Amino acid sequence: LYTMPVDYAVEAMVGLASKYFQGGGVFHLMSASPISADDIFNAYADVFGEKLPIVSFADWLRRVGALHERGTTLPIMPLVSEQIRIAMRSTRMPETSAQPDDPADVFDNARTRSELAMLGIEQPKMDSTVLAAYWRAIREDAATVARTARMQSDR
Q1: Cβ–Cβ under 8 Å, residues 58 and 86
Q2: Which end of the chain is more exposed for a tag (fewer CB within 10 A), N or C?
Q3: CA–CA gap between residue 64 and residue 103 (Å, rounded)
């Protein structure tokens, strides 16, 4: 998986847009250090002392769809809503367009890296420390959303 911190992505976009405010550039922001799904799941287990259940893609889609029907819409919903409709009607897993490590998904970003280096914008490495911080923030945000929902339903 080619992931990057959002603050880095924003800093890079603002820096490049400021330099090329009249156009003249196509840039590909992508992680220089891909991480595996195992890295993501292992970081969760390391932080919280429990393993995340691994489910099939179709089961995950059904779970996201069920949450949506109960009033909890995840940010990914617009990207997977059609696949969720298919998964809810079928036991067959929806087709995916590419495998996660498909070389076709990788762009040459040498120019982007060079431009960002000239701007002094350095991409942080995605490692277990960063992943742990993300998992803590996600769980904290989920707890905040749940508290807010309870307060609103108590009104």
Answers
A1: no
A2: C
A3: 28
pLDDT tens per residue across all 155 residues of the chain:
778 888 899 999 999 999 998 888 888 888 877 888 889 999 999 999 999 888 888 888 888 888 889 988 888 888 888 888 887 776 555 455 444 455 445 677 888 999 999 999 988 888 888 889 988 998 888 777 777 777 777 77
Give the number of other Cβ atoms within 10 Å of residue 112's Cβ.
19
Nearest-angstrom CA–CA distance, 121 and 137:
24
